[in-house]
Design goal:
This protein is an alpha+beta fold and 175 residues long. It has one domain (3-152): Nuclear Transport Factor 2, Chain: A, CATH 3.10.450. It is built from three helices and six strands; from the N terminus they run H-H-E-E-H-E-E-E-E. The chain has helices spanning 3-31, 35-39, 57-67, and strands at 42-49, 54-56, 71-86, 89-103, 109-125, 128-145. The mean pLDDT is 94.
Length: 175
């Protein structure tokens, strides 16, 4: 392999890794209800179509965080990423599974489980990949009643804020 081809391949792999990390930061941001982290994954003029919300990403973040208050916890998983690079634009399809653990209106606990895909247009601006346009394609959803639960009281419990354990850095923040 010649040096030019090797450099192009390395650049492509680095771009795809950066895009992957943006997707992972989105999942952490939405599950930890971290508005700052969510803002970091979208360009300032980005748009978002989440079905029940269509508009600017900055407004989606406020809308989503308000709506997530009804949930006890959420988990967003991203899989099957396909990144198609075209210069400073990337078309990205990633499968999603979202689980919202909540109290049902009629009492008791339920899990709202949704499966679909994020269809994103990423753009590299000023050397940084971020989402410019997101469309959520919902393939199916269901509500599962929660019967018997496993006790988690002896475990560290997740927090929906920057108080969560993931934000602690025992090795320090030295760069």
């Amino acid at each position: 392999m010649d040096a030019d081809k090797a450099n192009r391949l390395l650049r492509e792999l680095a771009d795809k890794q950066e895009i992957h990390e943006v997707l992972m930061r989105y999942c952490r941001g939405i599950d930890r209800c971290d508005a700052e982290l969510l803002r970091s994954v979208y360009h300032p003029d980005a748009s978002d179509n989440h079905g029940l919300f269509v508009g600017k990403a900055v407004d989606f973040i406020r809308w989503a965080l308000e709506g997530l208050k009804r949930d006890l916890s959420t988990k967003h998983y991203v899989t099957n990423e396909l990144v198609e690079l075209r210069g400073d634009v990337a078309h990205v399809e990633s499968y999603l599974l979202a689980i919202h653990h909540r109290t049902a209106r009629e009492g008791g606990l339920v899990d709202l489980v949704m499966a679909g895909r994020y269809v994103d247009r990423f753009e590299r601006r000023n050397g940084e990949w971020k989402i410019a346009d997101r469309k959520v394609i919902l393939d199916w959803a269901r509500i599962d009643p929660v019967g018997k639960s496993f006790s988690v009281e002896k475990f560290l419990n997740g927090r929906r804020s920057r108080e969560d354990e993931v934000y602690r850095r025992p090795w320090g923040d030295a760069d």
